[in-house]
Amino acid sequence: MASVKAIIGSALGRFVFHDASVVGIRDVAPRFRRVDLEGPALQGIRWEAGDKVQVFLPETGMRTYTPLSWDAQKGATAFLIYLHGEAPGAVWGRTLQQGTRVQFFGPRRSVSLGDSSAPLLFFGDETSFGVAHALKQAHAQRDLTCVFEVTRRADCAEALREFGFEDSDVERSAGDAHLAEVHERLKGVLQARKEARLVLTGKAQSIQALRARLRSEGLPSPTQVKAYWSVGKTGLD
After folding, report:
1. Where along the sequence do coiled-coil regions lie (predicted)?
2. pLDDT tens column, 171-219
3. Which long-range contacts (CB under 8 A, 24 or more apart) does 178-181 make?
């Protein structure tokens, strides 16, 4: 049965959504799928790396994705979909085929780095690979260090290698014990590069724990924080 959000979205979609069609699908790793979209409605739209779009899933409602890229002249964009379990976005991602119609609105501001040339320290998880890649491409002149917490390194290796983030992942462990290693990696960069800007994304509980650890040692506060999901919740933006 469709959710209330899905029903409302379907009714409003013809007036507020951009329409595009799937023109390419490629599995870049066991749980990661790149989806390329094109359509006249995507032409002439202003997009910055880190901006988000909200995609309408017919039986569920809205889910948020960060485009990997956007070609306003051609009218093309691409998403990286994390195929995790039976989450609504993962189920939708598996059903996509060449020619599937996709509706979404945006882009809108989400993670913005501005014009600073300061080194960037980025934390996230599997849901953050796309935004990290987009930021890396758009800010190639900046020194970027990424640290990702992941459920299984083997599931992520090919995607991280494709995006140039090899060996930037730490596998999750019971009781979030792995966050000690994540903290040490972040701490090392912040102490070595005093001017580094810290961005925390991904799981809300991990962000909260890392902020507390860093604060307790007098290290700089994050420049930006963006939780993409939280334990026990779906559709967090």
Report:
1. none
2. 999 999 999 999 999 999 999 999 999 999 999 999 999 999 999 999 9
3. 178/149, 179/149, 179/206, 179/209, 179/210, 179/213
**Helix (H) and strand (E) counts for the chain?**
6, 12
Residue type for position 1: M
- 45 and 105 in a single domain? The answer is yes
The phi and psi torsions of 38 (rounded to 5 degrees) equal: -140, 155
3-class SS shares of the chain: helix, strand, coil, % to 5: 35, 30, 35
Statement: the pTM of the whole predicted model exceeds 0.70: yes
- In DSSP notation, 191-211 reads HH-TTPEEEEEEEHHHHHHHH
Nearest Cα residue to 5 out of 65, 54, 67: 54
CATH of the domain at 42: 2.40.30.10
Q: Has residue 96 been placed in a domain?
A: yes
Q: Distance between CA 134 and CA 132 in Å, rounded?
A: 6
For tokens 């800010």, the residue is 139
Judgement on whether residues 96 and 197 belong to the same structural domain of the protein: no
| pLDDT tens-digit map of 105-142 | 999 999 988 777 899 999 999 999 999 999 999 988 88
187, part of any domain: yes
For residue 90, the 8-state DSSP code is: H
Nearest to 69 by CA among 154, 135, 134, 165: 134
Residues 124, 104, single domain; the answer is no
Based on the fold, state whether residues 96 and 161 are members of the same structural domain.
no
